[in-house]
Amino acid sequence: MLPDIMAAALNEQIKVEAESSQIYLAMASWAEVKGFEGIAAFMFKQSDEERLHMLKLLKYVNQRGGYAVVSALDEPRLDYSSFSVLFRQLYEHEVKVSASINNLVDIALTHKDYATHNFLQWYVSEQIEEEAQAKVILDKIDLIGDSKGGLYMFDNDMKNFTSQGHNIVQ
Ligand SMILES: [Fe+2]
Ligand SMILES: [Fe+2]
């Protein structure tokens, strides 16, 4: 049985992951309309991944005798004034998510919920990946600046970019 405080915190995280999915989806739609196919494809894929993060939590809460709540989501508020600004927000968002995962680990340990602690390890490693990936993309974008040719190539690279392989830095 999940401690109540743990169930509540995991439910909060369900919302965080669902909102992450919406954020990536909003960026995907923006990139698609702007004609950046590669960036859009990457964002759509990320959006799906965040939904899977959400589902995994939802199923875990229910499996442990809790009740996973599907709540209303905040609308993504994003500044699209430049790619650099946009990808910085993405990076900062992932850093924030890492902090909330760390907080969940903290609650699990404080309440001796070792099953949840074990479950959360997947999210800990996943966040290392996600933060690193967001940072690689941000560094790349900062390097390119407003160069049209650079952005064109960047968009092409993004088609091959996956969360596993950081082939964009090669
Ligand atoms: Fe996530
Ligand atoms: Fe993420």
TrEMBL record:
Compartment(s): Cytoplasm
Any one of the GO CC terms: cytoplasm
Domain of life where this protein originates: Bacteria
GO terms, molecular function: ferric iron binding; ferrous iron binding; identical protein binding; oxidoreductase activity
Presence of keyword Membrane: no
InterPro entries noted in UniProt: Ferritin (IPR001519), Ferritin-like (IPR012347), Ferritin-like_diiron (IPR009040), Ferritin-like_SF (IPR009078), Ferritin_DPS_dom (IPR008331), Ferritin_prok (IPR041719)
Catalysed transformations (reactions): 4 Fe(2+) + O2 + 6 H2O = 4 iron(III) oxide-hydroxide + 12 H(+)
GO biological process: intracellular iron ion homeostasis; iron ion transport
UniProt keywords, alphabetically: Cytoplasm, Iron, Iron storage, Metal-binding, Oxidoreductase
Positions of the Ferritin-like diiron domain: 1-145
One Pfam family of this chain: Ferritin
Binding site for Fe cation: E17, E50, H53, E94, Q127
E.C. no: 1.16.3.2
Function: May alleviate iron toxicity in the presence of oxygen. Iron-storage protein.
Family according to the record: Belongs to the ferritin family. Prokaryotic subfamily.
Classification via PANTHER family: BACTERIAL NON-HEME FERRITIN (PTHR11431:SF127), FERRITIN (PTHR11431)
Protein name according to UniProt: Ferritin
